[in-house]
Write a structure and sequence with these properties.
heterodimer; A: alpha/beta; 4-stranded antiparallel sheet; globular; B: alpha/beta; 9-stranded parallel sheet; 12 helices; 9 strands; 46% helix
């Protein structure tokens, strides 16, 4: 709908005002404005401070376990080649997993949390708040808060508290206070509203540790920067392993932090096809999905302009996904821009397809992926048979699926 | 060009008393009842009406206004119908200023240009859009000013002297001082701090300064009114409506009457507080 001139580089955003084209910005209440300006200043200072970089690097290596592995998923590759033969093709691209599931706390979320807790410390903040969907960001926030001795309050939709119990328990063990939010459908959107309400009420001492590459500027930028370690490593690792760049990279998009982290370092590699996977839920015909870029339109929520699921009056819809981490009616603003420029394609994967991929990966690789990551795997399995065997794809395995075993067990009618 | 809001403050200054600014949620508990509430406001002593536009995700509002917005949305309230309510009010009241208060997305989706045209036609005098700080003035503030609508900005305790000029730059009509950091409906801070804050803002502007967030009783209205050019009451009115509604949606009392009683009380408080400076 918006025609955008293709830029020379896709990596220069956002601009001074925090815009990626028409997306992004600082749509917040006046109470928060001075805070996000202060955060921006602190982040600009930190970026130019070698000691900040060094501390983050050390924590990433020794605490989070980076670099994460780039793993050749041989079992899954064998499977897609079998699928190809069944369709009378001789294709089957080589599939690699970027193993963010092996990080400390079990997902990519720790990358961002380590960066932001160091910022919070620099800014002299003494209390951490966070929102969480699947609980992965909540756990990572609780973890770094424990590590740095700061109290942490995590807002989590009541529905998510129910479907992600193991993570709720982990957060509590880590000393965080988990506050269930029952407004709306009780999912990530509602948790974010409540976290913002907490922040306007506690501006003096509180740092809001946003978990995804969304929200008012500078959050989309700084979360992206902290997550870009994923793509930077993957790019080096694949060059080392294969001697060339991949043909296709794929990641699941809820708010979109694991995806932008993988994508960003590849944006100017014109021959690398980049695909983001949205939650198709029960199909795009009704309201039971979270495919904001496939089925929504631009609007303003949670501090930024971006693609949103909304009705004709501009009221935000709740959406649905089997995966709590993708259950969000918006998306980070940089993704909206990448969509409109055509640099990245965004396609939906249904709940059922993700569940199939979840089981397939478990059985062919001995890896239980997070339901979020299973969406990306599902799409890889869909297109790989049609690609030649010498094609290479990297799928971001953004998190491990231990947290989802109850949900999956229930959906499959298993006795747990 | 003087707007309805400017004329109202000039008249109140001549009277030597602060304004009573009343917020209610458009469409709560339903369109007709809400319209009845609105029509009753001037007669009960409200000087300026803040007409709330419901939004699904009111990030700066407390539980009371959140719930009111959801009740209104459930009954089919929308920005279009909110404008219709204002237009119908204007059929019988030419003088009471109406300020539309809400969030940006419904306006953005309606289309800024089309919205401003329809707002002018509906007799809207001012806008308070919570999630549009001065950094985003190109979006709506500047087009609104060009359309002859006042853009009223919130100043908060976090708005320091360095930032105030930026906040006030494109503000017109009046300045809305939010007397504490937090969501709507929170407790009222002590009045000496409020008075000092109003003083601070007045050093930067000649606009009237009204104070809101937390005012619930006539006595509070009187005290705040002695330190400011106006007092905003919102959550207390929204609660008065809520208290007339059973959990099943049926009414135990007439919401319009409940609001009228409350506003009359607040009005007596405001009228008791002659402006300290008594020009």
């Amino acid at each position: 709908m918006n025609t955008v001139v293709e830029p020379n580089s896709f990596k220069t955003g956002p601009d001074e005002e925090g815009m990626f084209g028409i997306f992004g910005g600082r749509f917040v209440a006046e109470t928060l404005m001075p805070l996000i300006l202060e955060l921006q200043q602190a982040y600009d200072d930190a970026k130019n401070d070698p000691s900040f970089k060094a501390e983050l690097q050390a924590l990433s290596t020794h605490y989070a376990g980076r670099p994460s592995k780039l793993y050749y998923a041989e079992g899954l590759t064998r499977h897609v080649r079998q699928l190809a033969r069944e369709q009378g093709l001789d294709g089957g691209a080589k599939i690699y997993f970027k193993r963010e599931d092996l990080n400390h706390t079990g997902s990519h979320k720790i990358n961002n949390c380590l960066g932001q807790i160091l910022l919070a410390k620099r800014m002299g903040k003494t209390r951490i708040i966070a929102e969480t969907g699947a609980g992965q960001h909540g756990v990572a926030s609780a973890t770094v808060s424990a590590r740095f001795g700061l109290p942490c309050v995590v807002y989590m939709g009541a529905t998510d508290v129910e479907r992600q119990k193991p993570n709720v328990f982990r957060m509590k063990l880590l000393g965080a206070e988990v506050k269930p939010v029952s407004s709306g459908h009780g999912t990530l959107k509602d948790a974010m509203n409540e976290a913002l309400r907490d922040w306007v009420s506690n501006v003096e001492d509180t740092y809001y540790l946003i978990g995804t590459a969304a929200g008012p500027h500078p959050y989309p930028e700084l979360v992206r920067d902290f997550q870009s370690v994923i793509g930077t490593e993957a790019r080096e690792q694949i060059l080392e392993r294969e001697g060339r760049l991949p043909d296709t990279i794929i990641a699941a998009v809820g708010g979109g932090s694991n995806a932008i982290g993988l994508f960003h370092p590849f944006l100017d590699d014109k021959n690398v096809e980049i695909i983001g996977i949205e939650a198709g839920g029960r199909g795009l015909d009704g309201d039971e999905h979270c495919a904001s870029m496939s089925a929504g339109r631009p609007g303003v929520l949670h501090g930024n302009r971006t693609y949103l699921l909304q009705n004709k009056d501009g009221q935000i819809l709740d959406g649905h996904s089997v995966s709590a981490g993708l259950d969000y009616p918006g998306v980070g603003p940089e993704h909206s821009w990448l969509r409109d420029t055509g640099r990245v394609s965004y396609v939906p994967i249904l709940d059922d397809e993700a569940l199939d991929a979840f089981q397939l990966t478990t059985r062919t690789e001995g890896i239980i992926p997070a339901l979020e990551s299973a969406h990306a795997i599902a799409y890889a399995v869909k297109i790989a048979p049609k690609m030649a065997q010498d094609k290479i794809m990297i799928v971001n395995l953004s998190g491990r699926g231990d947290k989802d075993v109850h949900t999956v067990g229930q959906l499959l009618g298993m006795d747990i | 060009m003087a707007t309805r809001i400017d004329r109202k403050f000039a008249a109140l200054k001549a009277e030597g008393r602060p304004a009573l600014v009343t917020y209610f949620m458009g469409g709560d508990p339903d369109f007709d009842t809400s319209f009845k509430i609105m029509k009753g406001l001037p007669g009960s002593g409200s000087d300026i009406i803040e007409l709330g536009v419901p939004f699904s995700d009111p990030m700066a509002d407390g539980p009371a206004i959140q719930a009111a917005g959801l009740r209104a949305l459930k009954k089919g309230m929308s920005l279009t119908r909110t404008l219709e309510m204002a237009a119908r009010f204007r059929e019988t009241d030419e003088t009471t200023p109406i300020v539309l208060m809400g969030y940006y997305n419904p306006i953005y989706i309606y289309g800024v240009e089309r919205f401003l045209k329809d707002a002018v036609r509906s007799g809207i005098d001012g806008l308070i859009v919570v999630d549009l700080p001065p950094e985003m003035d190109e979006e709506l503030c500047i087009p609104a000013i060009k359309a002859g609508i006042n853009f009223i900005r919130l100043a908060t305790p976090t708005t320091d002297d360095k930032r105030l000029p930026k906040v006030l730059q494109n503000t017109s009509g009046f300045v809305y001082y939010v007397s504490m950091n937090g969501i709507t409906g929170s407790a009222l801070p002590d009045t000496s701090r409020v008075a000092a804050a109003v003083e601070r803002i007045k050093k930067h502007t000649d606009l009237p300064v009204v104070v809101g967030f937390g005012v619930k009783t006539a006595e509070q209205a009187k005290v705040i009114g002695s330190a400011a050019d106006g007092v905003v009451v919102g959550t207390a009115i929204v609660n008065a409506v809520a208290n007339t509604i059973n959990p099943d949606g049926s009414l135990v009392a007439d919401p319009a009457e409940a609001v009228a009683t409350m506003v009359q009380g607040l009005s007596s408080g405001v009228r008791a507080s002659r402006l300290a400076a008594a020009e």
